[in-house]
Design a protein that fits this description.
- The protein has about 350 residues and is an alpha/beta fold.
- It has two domains: about 240 residues, Rossmann fold, CATH 3.40.50; about 100 residues, Dihydrodipicolinate Reductase, domain 2, CATH 3.30.360.
- Helix content is about 35%, strand content about 20%.
- Helix 2 links the parallel strand 2 and strand 3.
- The radius of gyration is 20 Å and the shape is globular.
Length: about 350
């Protein structure tokens, strides 16, 4: 059975549970608990095979992937001991991937020269390259997307940088028989999804929204990065909420707080206020707590498999219809129900 050869860009707190999660379902082939889809086409999670990786941190560069994920800054709950992969972490270009505030604490930048990324991808016969660079790294994200194109790899953009929403770039991938999926990976069940469901319910019930606010608190490197580069993440989160509101509803607001306590745990408080019959106030408060990186890794395992499935079944031009189920900022927004139906329709069309 063909495996999906996968390269990872950015060996941080998100890469760790992705590698561990794939290892978990490989060790336990009958286990399906916690999966959005146990199979996509004929691909199980265990069919994901990590073949190469890229980072800029000297504590990761040169190491095997299963060793590099345990670098000091990678803090998240362990799923299982990872499988021992032959995949090596190569020195990628820094570009705009590391802000000065992250250096010497969260990131110890390697003095090695950056490699020829496209060459490494080709040598390792990479099918899909997944982008996990820090939020706000637009230049780095574009660079790796172009390297994937050169090497003949599909690209999964898990960060808010606009790539899949750029029609011309999607078409470049399609013309080469590849797919571009993105942007900004959804959690399996995250705060923005819960927030959106609540807002949609209120609108169905004829309620005007006078306030909707989401306060995100976390202690990992990404939350520290968001102290300085929150604009894109805020736009991605608030934008996906705004799509389902009326013009006279309040504009959604989103805030990020770095707790200073190293942890993969995330706490989100959601506050919604509105007006019901007779303009009488109604108030909703909701709290969601999770291991943020693990919550996103499950969706990423679906995105990797869907990317390869679309190539195998020659449905590259339909890739944009897979995005709303997997990403916060897809080329076209849908309700969560519509997105799930569109995703399943793609799977059924090749059955």
């Amino acid at each position: 059975m063909k495996k999906i050869n996968v390269g990872i860009v950015g060996i941080g707190s998100f890469a760790k549970p992705l590698v561990e999660g794939v290892s978990f379902y490989t060790k336990n082939p009958e286990e399906t608990t916690g999966l959005l889809h146990s199979k996509i086409g004929h691909y199980k999670v265990s069919d994901i095979n990590f073949v190469c990786a890229f980072d800029v941190d000297e504590r990761k560069v040169g190491k095997k992937l299963h060793e590099a994920i345990f670098a000091v800054a990678n803090i998240t709950r362990e799923i299982t001991k990872p499988l021992e992969y032959e995949a090596v972490v190569f020195r990628g270009p820094t570009l705009d991937g590391v802000i000065k505030e992250m250096k010497d604490d969260f990131v110890h930048e390697s003095k090695d020269e950056s490699v020829d990324v496209a060459k490494i991808l080709k040598e390792n016969r990479t099918d899909v390259l997944i982008n996990l660079v820090p939020s706000g790294s637009d230049e780095a994200s574009r660079f790796y997307a172009q390297e994937a194109l050169k090497a003949g790899c599909s690209f999964v953009n898990c960060v808010p940088s606009p790539l899949a929403t750029v029609a011309e770039l999607r078409e470049e991938f399609e013309e080469k028989g590849l797919v571009l999926l993105g942007d900004d990976i959804k959690s399996q069940l995250g705060a923005t999804m819960l927030n959106r469901f609540l807002l949609q319910l209120l609108k169905i019930r004829g309620i005007r929204i006078t306030k909707t606010h989401q306060e995100n608190k976390g202690g990992n490197a990404d939350h520290f990065n968001l102290k300085y580069r929150f604009e894109q993440k805020e736009k991605s989160k608030s934008g996906t909420l705004q799509k389902f509101l009326d013009k006279d509803d309040a504009v959604p607001t989103v805030a990020f707080t770095y707790t200073g306590e190293p942890s993969g745990h995330k706490l989100v408080n959601i506050t919604i206020e509105g007006e019901i019959f007779g303009r009488t106030p109604i108030f909703i408060t909701s709290v969601i707590e999770d291991e943020i990186s693990i919550n996103g890794a499950g969706t990423a395992s679906d995105a990797i498999r869907m990317a390869q499935f679309l190539v195998d079944t020659k449905q590259q031009k339909k890739a944009q219809w897979a995005c709303p189920f997997l990403f916060k900022t897809p080329p076209e927004h849908m309700t969560d129900t519509e997105a799930a139906e569109a995703f399943d329709k793609l799977l059924d069309s090749a059955a």
